[in-house]
Amino acid sequence: MEYKWWQKEIIYQIYPRSFKDSNNDGIGDIQGIISKLPYLSKLGITMIWICPIYKSPMVDNGYDIANYLDINSEFGSMDDLNQLFEEANDFNIKIMLDLVINHTSDEHIWFQEAISNPKSKYRNYYIFKEGINGQPPNNWRSIFGGSVWEKVPNENQYYMHIFDKKQPDLNFENLELRQEIYHMINTWLEKGLAGFRIDSITFLKKDQDFKSLEADGSDGLVTCKHKTRNRPGIDKFLNELKQQTFEKYDCVTVGEAPGVKYNELDNFIGKNGYFSMIFDFKYADIDVESGSDWFKRTNWTVDEFKSLLFKSQEAIQKVGWGANFIENHDQPRAISKLIKDKKYHNYYGGSALGIMYFFLRGTPFIYQGQEIGMTNFERESITQFNDISSIDNYERSLQEGFTPKEALSFVNQRSRDNTRTPMQWNSDIHAGFSDVAPWIELNNNYKDVNIEKQINDENSLFNFYRKMIKLRNDSEYSNALIYGDIHPIWNTSDEVISYYRIFNNLQLQVIVNLSNNEVNQTLGDGNHKVIFNNYKDNNLYEKAISLRPYEAVLLKN
User: Which residue among 341, 349, 368, 388 has its CA within the 20 to 30 Å range from the CA of 163?
Assistant: First the structure.
């Protein structure tokens, strides 16, 4: 195995709008991040991934970029970002930014030129097609609902947007466009950036026949994924992207790469792969049949979750390195999604999930607030949502025949706003996030779940995460927990997730009871020692361990 510096990192994802507001305008900012570097250092993380802070009209909260080389004024300035780089370095914390190159904002100067002048070279920077008999070029549905096509005023032309209509897709078939993108990326890497998380990267290549397909919904449309996600020919774009940018620097690249089959992983994360690692959503999206159709709920079991998790780990281990997560800015809170008994939406549920995923093989990601057990909210009206995909899913649910109450339930469970509520720093008004009302409503449990309440409590989830980070990165077990092979244990109770991490002659075993029942787990021969657990004591016997509800342990065998 070839060791890389980024395999040892602990990456903490920050959603800047909701992390910390320094100037009391209700919106988190770069100076807010700077003010909390001591907190992040105390937690023990080694790298920050910051969601988009580029100039943007914020239709999709920054994933609609109007200028790749400028900072959105609500977050601060380039001087603020340079200060963050410097001060984070003092804490030995690296910085990773989001890279969004599948699309831009419709306010980007390229698109403005493309719309205003059909003969401009910028018309070919995007994807424009003629309408057919007064209708869009085909029946593809966007990820956010509705057609992927938006009509150009006063022309029989439509432009493509896989996401929102304010996010026109870039035309990667155009070499000149690609060269502009590579120049932008290299400009950032020259500043000393540690790397990028790369958004929606498997959508760069579109089938050039642009044919309609059989509809899959009552709207007469079909998901665009069949013709726009991880399509043949994408290897040309991704190899060129790597060669022209990433491989010139010792940087880390984390691909958001939905639609990648396991037999394709070598192309993405193998020795000559496009990226350092990718996120695998096959287990993360277990609660819905499709990550973009929230009304298609599943009645999943722990055994099914375990199977998806282990298949992912085994497939990734064969070829490369994984990016392990249970929360992010597009997912619900893990406690609310994966802990079915609400009585355990607390330290026990949060710590069980922590041990379950944190010691998997790969680089662990922590999303802001995960370390204190932040949960989903419950809104009473669709008007309380900011997230455009939540509003689209609500409307689609109604179109599919669900009642307004049912549609709101789907959105409450799956909304991206769940992980975008402001960070809960203390129990003061506005949770210490700001002195004024924040841009999005707080979760109303902030007086009970907050950092101030946990940071000095040795038995809190925050301090559990601190110990877990230290155990992985700075203990006699670090080599096994970072570099060790993973061996799933399949012959357990359906409610138990267990696996070995093995490095040379050291064998560690993770055992997690992901249920509200007491469960017995048999152990193999040898001396077994509990080196980390989420209860104050344990019921370890010679060849078995008795696990209480949501009990999780790390054993040395």
Answer: 368
